[in-house]
What we know:
Helix content is about 10%, strand content about 35%. It is mainly beta. The chain has a domain at about 5-105. The longest helix is centred in the first third of the chain and has 28 residues, at about 35-60. It is globular. Its cofactor is Cu cation. This is Amine oxidase. GO terms for molecular function: copper ion binding; primary methylamine oxidase activity; quinone binding.
Amino acid sequence: MELHTNSTFANRGNSYQVTCKPDDKMQSDGKFRSIILSQFCGVCIFILGLVGGILIGIFAYHGSPNSSRDIKCIHSTNMDYAAARDGKNYSQISTTISTIFRVSSSAENVSTESSSISCNACPVRDPINSVSSPGLFDPLSTEEMEESFSALFKSGVIPTKDPPVTFYKNYVQYMSLQPPNKQEALRFLQKQGNPPGRFAKVHVVRSGIHNPDCMIYKVGPLGRDGAQVKQLLADGEAHINTRPKDLFEALMVFEFLKKDMKIMEQLISESFDGANFMDDMYIFSGNSPFGLTSEERKIRFNLAFKGFGNSEIMDLFDLLPLQGAVIASSLNVSHWFATDYYYLNQGPFKTAKDLMNSYNNGTIRKLQLPKGYVKTIRDRIVPKRDMSLPVREKADTPGARTYEPAGARYTINGYNISWMGWNFVLSGSQVRGPSLFNIRFKGDRIVYELAFNDVSVMYAADNYAQNNVIYTDATYGILEGEVILGVDCPEHSSVLKIATWNSRTATPIDTSIVCVFEVDGEESLWRHKGGAFTGGQRERHLVIRAPITLGNYDYSLEFHFHLDGRIVTKARASGYIQAHFWDVRNKHFGDDRSFYPYGYRISDFHVGSIHDHTFGFKVDLDILEQNNTFKLIHWKAGNVLDALQTKSNVTEIPSYYLFNQTRYIEWETLYREAGLRIDMENQKFWTVVNTNKQNKWGNSRGYRIIPMATGAQNFDDSFLPMRALSYTKYHCAVTKRKDEEEFLTSTFDVNRMMEPKGYLDLMINNESIVNEDIVNWISVGFLHVPTSEDMPITLNVETGFTLKPHNFFDRSPVLDLPQVTNTIEPSEYERMPKFDQCYEKM
């Protein structure tokens, strides 16, 4: 009998096969053996042969002790594995194999010794615990949204509960949690009062009433019988034409323009590579603002190529030089009209017929895209692997990754998250984005509310539809998107769902929009090595990340919690840029046609439009209690007397100073509400302190606000939209907290910029902010001049700010954590927790 044991191993794209052929054939000695004894011996020999074959196979594969060896631990139960290089599937790995050895290339000299790693799975602990009822700050559940919708229907705000939803009847656009009154919430949190109840804030487009408008309602308390509906705006306060663009209007504009596109069929076909409007194109009608006053509704549009099949990818790269406007001030489409047609910046033409007359009689320049251009669109806009390029060395093997060798160290109860002394509640608004409430560290409240508020984007371009394009993204609803595991977050992340309202189907949707995970910072939190002491701690932190999609752009909004009491808030941007058409004969381009005032040429026919992104946050710090004070610490340089006289009446420079120049700090209390900007020539620390609470050394306990490197607004107040966007003028504005001053922008003001009604400058009205409950409105961002590296998609750009302890503790807050310590005389020794090698379950 011949036994064959075959094992195949993946190694950097090569396969190694080990065949063991133990000779178990028995030679008869001619003596009679009983059948039973023969069978017994055969079984014994089979077992010995199998064991020997395996040992021989391992030795044949593993080689001598001096050979180069790399050992990889793989799941011992039946699983599917992909080879690192070619993606081939290796299925049904035997459960009897506990360790698989992978041969390394001899040239790499990875190891000179053989070793064995126990092939155990990493411990898994599901950190998410369900709760029976939502907490004080939890985002609205789908059930609460349905309850709110029913209450609106019963009160007559919504005419019907059943689809289809139409543009001509009142419909719900957004739903979010209405946070409770702060005083009531704090009394409940301090066990001194009853829960204040949960309420929904609902945005309704009231297109079905006699005088149409946009309205916001407060609905609740939820979860009890008879939720009440309260109107939060006066009738007509937000005109119907201040509404954001939505799919209803986009479809109406598309249908309305069909007849004009038919009139221009020849121009479209000849100019744009034989394209057909209905099959190959869409109308981008989202260039806001739609009006400078409430009554105006002027929709500037661009003809554009479709990105994928019949879907609008929001590929704002392939916008074409055929533009115009739809005057849609009335809800009655029969009153609409199209005007201001431009072709290659030539115009305006009052009607499509006027443009075609000039096109046909040869009085305007013409464009003719290369034949076959339309067929290249997908290849140009899809960020896929370029198969014509060689793969970078080692790029086809798995990269480094973070895993949890002892299971998750955080706990999530509903939306209440705890980790390493931190505790807070995750919340979120469909309009404003993610937020955190009641942030505590080691039992002390640091922040009552840390909430994303808005992001504004201002574009510049040399054409009719895209000059002075301004978006305030809260107008369109920020909390849209879905986590891509393995891209946005590690595969072992905990993914939380937050409900949003679908206005088209009149139903709530639970979306996997937030991920939670602990990350290895891959650096030291602190370290020192020298003399008689060696020590340090590894940096790790918890990440709360919400990847969202807003049309062509993608944002990642995230909060990082560190072991030393820091909170780092970040905003990242990626996605497709908004470009405009590159016309080689545009007289505004000058002689050098590679760039011009509004950007660089980045493809055959497009310029990346310059723009900025300004992210606004609401930061309600409560350092141990509500009453706090904002203090500026000036970082100064001057003569020695200037420094000493900040604290004393000294009149002579002490003789021990080398120079009569020094650095020093000077303290200033901000007594009144104000807006602050970063000044690199006169640098300051921004701190929020509790002057009623001191640390051991007599310093007021507080936190410092540290913006990352950020862009700055260079428009002055004469720029018409600046009142509505006044938050972009400041990097930090400090105001006295009021429940009615919820946000730093209004969702309606972008479409009524000559008459804005809700903006940050309105809140800065000289009130006292010393020893008061104050709010810091923090604005950070970046300037974007798109370059060829932004094609086809923009790589992440980052901004943000840090909240850092400032005399909050008596000494370093990380001394309650295991660390590395080695000392001599006397000897002290400590190490961080050990862990066993394990594989991560996928």
